[in-house]
Amino acid sequence: MDLWKARIVAIEAAEAAGTLLRRGACGRFDVREKGAADVVTSLDIESERVIVERIRAGYPRHRIISEELGVVDGDDAWSWVIDPLDGTNNLAIGLPVYGIGLALCHEGVPMLGVIHDPVSDRTWSAIRGRGAWMSRNRALLRSADRRRRRPLLAWSQGYAVSPDDPMASALRILLERMAGRVLQLWAPLTYWVMLARGDIDGIVGYRIGEVDLHAGVVIAREVGIDIRDLSGAPFEERLGDMSETRSLVAGPADVVDRLLRLGPPAERLRTRLTDLWTAERAVAHTPEQPDWR
After folding, report:
1. What would the pLDDT profile of 56-70 be if each residue is shown by its tens digit?
2. Do 174 and 266 meet the contact criterion of CB atoms below 8 Å apart?
3. CA–CA gap between residue 226 and residue 257 (Å, rounded)
4. Environment class of 3 (CB within 10 Å of its CB; exposed 0-12, middle 13-18, buried 19+)
5. Lowest-confidence segment of 31-35, 100-104, 188-192 by average pLDDT
6. pLDDT higher than 70, residue 287
7. Which of 163, 184, 251, 268 has the most CB atoms lying inside 10 A of its own CB?
8. 128: phi > 0 → left, psi -120 to 50 → alpha, else beta; which?
9. Cα dihedral 45, 48, 50, 53 in deg (nearest 10)
10. Distance CA 202, CA 200 (A)
11. What sign for the dihedral angle of Cα 139, 144, 145, 146?
12. Is residue 216 a contact partner of residue 194, using CB atoms and an 8 Å limit?
């Protein structure tokens, strides 16, 4: 398998879809709900069609896993994971923060990642163990870590996380106290590029999805980013089962250490929030008592 060639194929597919999105975002497009707090647009479908057609033309035997299309059967040894429009909710309301991601996995291990930003028309890519690039040939190097007094962090969560998830709430509360700012942009691929460039200091991902994960992980790893699960163990860089059960922290080693230290207080706060919300629900469902005065 020639990963250098696959990288070019992926870049060209992402950039072709990016041109479509950039033009389409200026006009009218259909938007419909597809789940809690999630939508899909006609541009998602069109972008996916462009990417899948190009990947199929170059690699007809490879399996494809895509956001809207699902799984297109093929050789399980090589799988493409495609997010044709990461940040659909943003595009739907006119917020220009969205991207396109492709990852190529071998036996479940991500080997290649490509992220394209249609708004700025810029592309980032990486091959596992061989480096990362901006555009076709310019090496991507993380800028010197800025010594902010309080870190600039990004929060990402899966769509299955409910508004009253006590652990998610506990983590967000503690992150707000630690950070100078916590970004919540609903565009995880954008976070990974920002982290790789050095624009932000860390990412906390809670019960995250798969299709908008692996391209960013490959790029971040190639510029020296540390990625751990919430227990502190190395994050398993392997294609999962799409169940949104995995969580992570990512950043330079010193930032990751600080984020992992939030684990015990987050557990204590989670317990308190669980008790509080249980009591609140009990009160809310208590039948009205007669007024005996």
Report:
1. 999 999 999 998 888
2. yes
3. 10
4. middle
5. 31-35
6. no
7. 251
8. beta
9. -120
10. 6
11. negative
12. no
